[in-house]
Design a protein that fits this description.
This protein has helices spanning 31-36, 91-103, 120-135, and strands at 2-10, 13-18, 23-29, 44-51, 54-60, 66-67, 72-73, 77-83, 107-113, 139-142. It has 151 residues and is of the alpha/beta class. It has 2 domains: 2-60, Nucleic acid-binding proteins (OB fold (Dihydrolipoamide Acetyltransferase, E2P), Beta Barrel); 76-142, Rossmann fold, CATH 3.40.50.
């Protein structure tokens, strides 16, 4: 059997990337698989190519972890995007997310966006929170998606 990674899931359409073929196939799960478990993006699957476009999914490998929203499996790294303003920074929300991601062993990276909007007082606030999270062992990035800074 060949091993693949579910890279896309829209309703009944499943995109499976096969490592040895280096391309995406349309995945069709066998009935025995459907009865056992749901299939999510990030799942590793085993199966066989049945035609040039189709991959029959025979088995879903055990998941390392699973996020409910969005529903994805086997997450290695999570990018948590927050802002100092617009909307106002919520350390309680960020801390809760970090606890969940740590528990799932998904390595979180904190990204402060909209840094182009910050004035002196807010820049000091950004530096303070950056120091706190870096000292706690997290990677922290500063970006502006609008101005293409730090991207």
């Amino acid at each position: 059997m060949k091993r693949g990674l579910v890279v896309d899931r829209e309703a009944q359409m499943i995109g499976v990337y096969l490592f040895d073929q280096e391309r995406v196939y349309r995945g069709i799960p066998r009935k025995k698989v459907i009865k056992k478990t749901k299939i999510y993006a990030g799942d590793f699957v085993l199966g066989n190519i049945v035609d040039p476009e189709t991959f029959a999914i025979e088995q879903v490998e055990e998941r390392k972890n699973f996020l409910v929203r969005p529903p994805v499996a086997n997450v290695d790294k999570v990018l948590v995007v927050v802002t100092i303003k617009m909307p106002e920074f919520d350390s309680f929300l960020l801390d809760n997310l970090l606890v969940v991601y740590e528990h799932l062993q998904a390595d979180p990276v904190i990204i402060f966006n909209k840094i182009d909007l910050l004035e002196d007082k807010e820049i000091q606030k950004l530096k303070r929170w950056t120091d706190i999270y870096k000292n706690a062992g997290y990677d922290v990035l500063h970006v502006s998606a609008e101005k293409n800074i730090g991207i």
